Amino acid sequence: MSELSEANQVARPRKQPLLLKWSWRELWHGQLWPVAVALTLIIACVFALSALVVRVEKIMVDQGRTMIAADLVFRSANPLEASLLDQARELGLTVSQQTRFGTMAFSEQEMQLVSVKSVGSDFPLRGELVLEGADVRHRVQPGELWLAERLFSLLAVQRGDSITIGDAELTVAGKITQEPELSFNPFSQMPAVLIHNSDLAKTGAVQPGSRVQFRAYFNGPDDKLKLLQQNIELQPGQRWISETTQGRTGDMIERARQYLSLTLILVILMATATLVLTCWHYTSTRIEAVAMMKSLGASKRWLWQWLARQLSLLFAIAAVAGLSIGWLLEFLLRLPLSDVLPDPLPEIGFTPVFVSLAVALLVAIPGLGISLLRLVDAPAISVIQQQVDWPVKRQGYALVLLPVVAALIWFGSNKFMWLTLGGLVALLGILALSGLLVVALLRRGKWGAAIKLALSRISRSPLATGAQLAALTSSLMLLAVIWLLRTDLLADWQQTLPADAPNVFALNISPEQQQAYLDELDRNQVVRSEGYPVIRGRLIEINQQDLLAGTSQGEERDESLRRELNFTWRDSLPVHNTLLEGEWTDSRGVSVESGIAERLGIRLGDELTFNVSSQPFSAVVTSIRQVEWRNMRPNFYFIFTPDVMADLPATWLVSYRIDADQNTLINQLGRDYPTVTLLDLRAMATRIQAILQQVSLSLSVLAVLGVSSGLLLVLTLLRLSLSQREQEIKLYRTLGASRKRISATVWGEYGLMALIAGVMAAAGAESVVAALLKWGFELPVIGHPWLWVMLPLLSLGLVVIIIRTMIKRLLMPLKG
């Protein structure tokens, strides 16, 4: 007995190298290598994409937070409570405070309305503050006063002169060369003055009833910032500001994040489909080998051990190759962005490695498992009877729960992702049925022999044909969706801030100065908007219902009702506004912006009552228009006909663009028109354009990767489909069918499938993109007529490539 045990122990080590050698041979010669390639593709693409997503998202978040000077900002109309600051410090957050208010600044010769910001010595927590005096500084110290560059000419002062702010007399330390904070409301901007918090009390400017804004700036880990937000119950007049809520850049960053996530999901879906197809093809080629082993006495347990060794080797090889290729691919993807990416680059950590391997494992378990379960269950009789079909056990399909549960955890309550995935699943069924219906309709027509044979071949197996059409169509559709979304997002951003967007606003132009000011701009060939009369007032009633009286205790009113708004009047609507409902009239009318109309329930024909300087007046809503608030043009909630308010005192506003060679014009206008408030937004526009360029290039690179994955999936699908036809075509050839007839049939069959799939993919892509734009990105829906030509041509081109590479081998007759 002991001798037999020793013999078994000796035999096992000999057996292991044999099985390992067999597994290697099976891996490279047993049609398993396409599965390894597909798995490598998944790991490489997901690693490269997730690494780039991590880098780009960190950069976008950093840029967005730089624009608010911190990771998170708390804004309040009332003094900051000590409990808020204490909680932040207990959480380990860095805290800085700011108080800002508007007041008059007086020099010995001039006076000017300014925006005073009292800040701490640690301000800003993010971004760069550049102060230029006797030397270059980056922090405000006690006893210092720093002025925006234009204030030097407006107040006729130099460094070292004294300026009175409230009750305090402070010495000018120098000019503000660069501020990290950017504001996008030209009506609320005034030239900036920076002082230290310790000097705030000296000014005596903060009194009960004063219009003062208090801000707290926080830096720290994201989880601590979220916890702080959850612990604070906002009161009226309080608000959190983050990189995703800061106007134009907030919208852009949030939409870019959505696109990055969506592209990653679509690439995973396409790579998974490639894996499933290649694995299914592998199992179909190894049925005879498994049946032979079963007929020689191999048990299921032994077969699983045999397959487990192969799969372990396969995953190890795919992991090493995929991560290596993914790292190289991520490096190549960054090359187009080298001019706009910061140096040094943000670290990616181990997240991309974990995500790529986890995604590959989660999709491989059901993708490989279901096929291999069917392979192991192959009956031994398959050695002599190849057309035996047997179902997969129900337990096998339970493997699909693994990626589904992972998706539930990953997506959570992300409606955007569920909308996308739900729509894709529904479209798969619709596309498959539509394809079969089109084929059935084509069969009723009169065609040549080759086309008839091709249609007959397509219709012979409705289930297989429907699956092939759905797979081919969805592949083309997914790559089209990735590219179309990228195109539409970039078009929206370019429209938001075009190259010729205004970068200077002139406000508070008196009626007497208005025409002379416009003439001065025209003489200097400055591209400008029309002049707009501006007057501030409030909306107080809708159809004689008092809006303030209708607010219940504790209910927060709409933002537009909590402050004065800017009104204007015109003979016609601005060309950069889009009319949605109604029409422009020339008397007692008011045009309302669609957003405020929706929030307040304003409809055409409603009578609105306004109050300007304690003078009430009414107007009837005659039109509702769409306004793009981000385009840096003069925009208004309410635009009146001239007869409604032309008699009220107003100042004028004009926006214009100053190019690099016109810089001296700004200072000249400031000297010639000292009472006009100039808002120079050139620095802000430059920074936004830089972010737009950075994100646009990133999305383009990601779109190219996504489209490449889709093309690879289509090529794999077509190649496997033709490989499955190989034995059938060779049999036809052996039985006497001519090469010409078979070739024409193959071209006809796959040409028809390509055309049908291309047209249906265009329809599906238009539907998906329209839904995503409307409900996901909240952008206007536009059509893409060129898509209906390009996708069928692309599909036909891929078919031509695949058939040309395989047709000679397919037309070879079977050898006896």
UniProtKB/TrEMBL annotation:
<feature type="transmembrane region" description="Helical">
    <location>
        <begin position="259"/>
        <end position="283"/>
    </location>
</feature>
<feature type="transmembrane region" description="Helical">
    <location>
        <begin position="32"/>
        <end position="54"/>
    </location>
</feature>
<feature type="domain" description="ABC3 transporter permease C-terminal">
    <location>
        <begin position="701"/>
        <end position="810"/>
    </location>
</feature>
<keyword id="KW-1003">Cell membrane</keyword>
<feature type="transmembrane region" description="Helical">
    <location>
        <begin position="396"/>
        <end position="412"/>
    </location>
</feature>
<feature type="transmembrane region" description="Helical">
    <location>
        <begin position="742"/>
        <end position="765"/>
    </location>
</feature>
<feature type="transmembrane region" description="Helical">
    <location>
        <begin position="463"/>
        <end position="485"/>
    </location>
</feature>
<dbReference type="Pfam" id="PF02687">
    <property type="entry name" value="FtsX"/>
</dbReference>
<feature type="domain" description="ABC3 transporter permease C-terminal">
    <location>
        <begin position="263"/>
        <end position="371"/>
    </location>
</feature>
<feature type="transmembrane region" description="Helical">
    <location>
        <begin position="697"/>
        <end position="722"/>
    </location>
</feature>
<protein>
    <submittedName>
        <fullName>FtsX-like permease family protein</fullName>
    </submittedName>
</protein>
<feature type="transmembrane region" description="Helical">
    <location>
        <begin position="353"/>
        <end position="376"/>
    </location>
</feature>
<keyword id="KW-1133">Transmembrane helix</keyword>
<keyword id="KW-0812">Transmembrane</keyword>
<dbReference type="InterPro" id="IPR003838">
    <property type="entry name" value="ABC3_permease_C"/>
</dbReference>
<dbReference type="InterPro" id="IPR038766">
    <property type="entry name" value="Membrane_comp_ABC_pdt"/>
</dbReference>
<feature type="transmembrane region" description="Helical">
    <location>
        <begin position="311"/>
        <end position="333"/>
    </location>
</feature>
<feature type="transmembrane region" description="Helical">
    <location>
        <begin position="418"/>
        <end position="442"/>
    </location>
</feature>
<feature type="transmembrane region" description="Helical">
    <location>
        <begin position="785"/>
        <end position="807"/>
    </location>
</feature>
<keyword id="KW-0472">Membrane</keyword>
